[in-house]
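Input/output pair, single chain:
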Amino acid sequence: MDSSTTAYCRRLEQALGGAEKLADVTGCCAQERLTGNQIAKIFHTMPEEYARTERISLVSSFAASLFLGDYAAIDYSDGSGMNLLDIWTRSWSPDCLQACAPGLEERIGLPVASYSALGAVSSYMVDRYGFSADCKVIAFTGDNPASLAGLRLDRGELVLSLGTSDTVFTWLDHPRPNADGVNVWVNPLDVDAFLGLLVWKNGSLAREKVRNACSGGSWDTFISQLQSTPPGNGGNMGFYFYEREITPSIVGVHRFDSQDEPVSSFSAETEVRALVEGQMLARAAHTTNLGGVLGAQTKVLATGGASVNPALLQVVADVFNAPVYTIDEPNSACLGSTYRAKHGWLGGASTAFRAVVSSAVTEKCLAARPSADAHKVYSRMLERYTRVERLLLTSGSK
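Output:
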């Protein structure tokens, strides 16, 4: 991963008054890969090239430009991932622009709502490829916002992807951005709402490590061990961060007994449940910390390789106190792009996205319901998890 812009990240955070303040404005702390910091690097290391640059586009807006035959505007959602957009006003932050490079606003243009019609396709597209001259170009966006559209995610729903890395992707009405590696974007489906993304590097790879160490490399044994232990694991809790985690920024394996005292090891069965419960407690705790609401209307949509594990999904249902559904939409970003095009074509701001996709069907299969007493067990454990995680962050573990 590119770390050549770290100095520019720190400079941007300093200009805004710190990482938390920058996150509050742009939806995330300064990150090396984000466009604003990459632009700052170009300005400082290649000033002549920057001075000659007329326009700076994202991949999404550049692709739209090819159809439009003119510079295409950056949409609010993809623009939220630049460390430049004020997600609350939906306009470029003057302080962020100034901290990154001079004359930047004129080079990136004004952002627009994700459902905006930018104009008709170019005459070249009409003559060369047979497009209708009346064909509209709707603002392009990034893969994550497009996936939100493709899955038709609605209020009360969140996507939990269980893969090499685990991710939570959720609709937010009242986000609480923070500097813990989270990302908040303007929602491409509703300009007054937001979407949140949380990523954990220690996903399936951590589960495989524990499976190999405790279950003889067998998933069947792993599932049997998980099912043989009670919800709450007798108060035993674990943090399994074989690589430095993103949210929270902790590394190492840390085990605690029911009195929150560190212990060096667990039995094999306890270790398996401590891993799975610890992972799902982290997903739930940081979702709520970001502003997600876990309540009676919550549904968890599970995807990814580990979503075929019924015992793991039962823990998800119990920790989130919500039903878990599995979905299979392998090309959600492509599908979402077609939905978004239809949304813009039908009027965008004057048409609710939900009405646009009302006739669409995606199979959601109920995989698990929360156990009867799960909420009592895990509401207490969520409080403990948050407290112990905070202690680890203030110790040498970080």
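The mean pLDDT is 94. The two ends are 20 Å apart (CA to CA).
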